[in-house]
Amino acid sequence: MPDPYASPTIATVADVCSALERLAPPALAQPWDNVGLLAGDPAAPARLVLLCIDLTPAVVDEAVRRRASLVVAYHPPLFKPVSRLNAASHGTDAAVFRCIARGIAVYSPHTALDAAEGGTNDVLAGLCEIRDPMPVEWAEAPGAAECKMVVFVPEAEADRVAEAIFAAGAGRIGQYSKCSFRLPGQGTFLGSDESNPTIGQAGHFERVDEIRLEVVTPEARVADVLQAIRAAHSYEEPAIDVYPLKPPVVAGMGRQGRLDPPIPLGALADRLKRALAANTVQMVGDSKAVVSRAVCLVGAAGSSVFQAGLRPGDVVVTGEIRHHDALAVRRYGACAIALNHWTSERPVLRPLADRLAVAVPGLQVDLSDADAEPFTSA
Predict the structure, then answer these.
(1) What percent of the chain has pLDDT over 90?
(2) What is the mean pLDDT of the chain?
(3) Burial 140-178 (b: 16+ CB within 10 A, else e)
(4) Which of 104, 39, 37, 43 is CA-nearest to residue 70?
(5) Largest CB tally within 10 Å, which of 208, 237, 336, 347?
(6) pLDDT at 142 > cutoff 70
(7) Which CATH architecture has domain 13-114+348-367?
(8) Is the pTM above the cut of 0.70?
């Protein structure tokens, strides 16, 4: 029975970081990005976490005033290797310096949150009311690299060799262990005069009924599994194959899907403007044009999306769009809506705060009031 007088367990910065990594695995981030804990002591207690898009001086002022333990800044305030941190700098390094000086940790999820399930692009797709959204560009599943290992054994030895393989760390798939595939076949060999075959004779062509035994193995355990196979196998030279496996694809960048029912471009732009309380919304295309499929890309719309081939009736919904990309959209006969960069990203913070509070019981998670769109309307 819990002690009612016991002090409540205080979460640490490391606990919060672990939760954020589960919600937005860093392995999903773009190669050029800088995600994760950028500054701070993982062992420090975490009582208040403040979420923002940009770590501006005003956000740091708020974090200091409210005694925040950690600021989760969607955009990394540090992108490149740091050569100096200067309090008087006009760059984002000054904001990081102030956080460090005040004992406030800084974490950035950025493109990992964009790609993750329930992340930035999913939130934007939900505002567009996309049906059955799918990633525009798939990402590989995070996790350790794996290999497929195949060994050919006499049928009577299959169980013994398999158990040795399992004991060495192979044959695990998710929550299942001792996973293998076995296929009967026939092996042939011709041993030299110096050979010492377990079955048959040296110098004679032999045919042997064998089992093809396949298992999945963490790449880090391949050497151990090879040693286990050779120790358990009766053959002088067992036939073993090792194939590197490409990780499965999971949620990735962007979202695309049907708009059901189809909607005029202007009506969709108005819906998003109201939902996001956007200052301005730009459209590429005729406001009366009916769109039936949306391609959502938080932040800037990459040219790779246009190269993938838009179609008439498509609308790209993004944060900002370059002039030449807008022209490309029109050449495809498609449309686009640009919501402003900050405006397209801010909506993810509320659901992220709610999920983080559930993941770390007792943690206070708030959205920064000082975080703001840098553009204003004339």
Answers:
(1) 75
(2) 91
(3) eeeeeebbebbbbbbeebbeebbebbbebebbbeeeeee
(4) 104
(5) 336
(6) no
(7) 3-Layer(aba) Sandwich (3.40)
(8) yes
